[in-house]
Amino acid sequence: MNRERLWDFVERLKRGVTVSDITVFSLEPKRGRFAEEINLELFARRGSSKRRLLYMKIFLGRGHYRDWIEVFGISAEIFGVLFFKTEVKEFVLDSIAPLTGRLFFEYYEDKETTRQLSLGAPPPLTDLGFSIAMRGFTYFKDWYFPEGLMEGGHKLQAEKPVSEEHLKKHLRRLEEELKAFLKRCSDEEIKVKILNRFQKLKEQF
Prior knowledge:
Blueprint: H1 3-15, E1 17-19, E2 22-26, E3 30-31, E4 37-46, E5 49-59, E6 68-72, E7 77-78, E8 81-82, H2 87-96, E9 102-106, H3 111-118, H4 127-133, E10 139-143, E11 155-159, H5 164-184, H6 188-204
Parallel strand pairs: 6-9
Antiparallel strand pairs: 1-2, 2-4, 3-4, 4-5, 5-6, 7-8, 9-11, 10-11
Helix pairs in contact: 5-6
C-alpha cells in the first residue's frame, strides 16, 4: 500500500474535501483490531446540515497478508440524492483506488447494481463494478450470502492484476462470462449497456 499517499488522504479528510457543494470529512482515524488496521468514519456536510456517509476499514498489510480497503455502511442518499449517483462516490473511488490492489465495496444500497447482478451480469460490468474496473481492477467476486450473518453486507471484491498474464486471464474470463450472460438475459436494454461497457474496458486495458 502507498502509505504516504494514504496518510495524505487521511489528513485531507480531517480538514474536509469539497466535492461539488458537499464537504466530505472524517474524524480522527481509529485503530482496528490490530496495529495494521485503521477505521475511518466519513461524513457529508452541506451548509449547517451534516450526515454520516460511510465507514472505511483499511488494512495496511502484514507479512504475506496483502493490504486492502473496505467501504461499507454506506448511506442510501446524501441530502436527497442517491449516493451511488453522486460525485462523492466518484471522489471516494478516485481517492482509494491508487492506494491498494484489493478493494471491497458494499453495494446493498445500489439498486441498479443489485438488479444487474440478479440478472447474471458479470460484476465488472455492473454500474458499481464498471466504475471500479475502469480504475484498474480486473478480478471481481460478488460476496453475497442470502442467509449470511458475520460476512457483512453485499459487496464486490475487486483486485488489480499482478502481471500482464493475469490481466489477459481476467479479460478472457470476463469475455466468457459476458457471452453466457448475453445468451440467457432477455432484457435487451441491459444487454446493450453491458456489452458497451465490455468494449470500453477492452479499450482501457
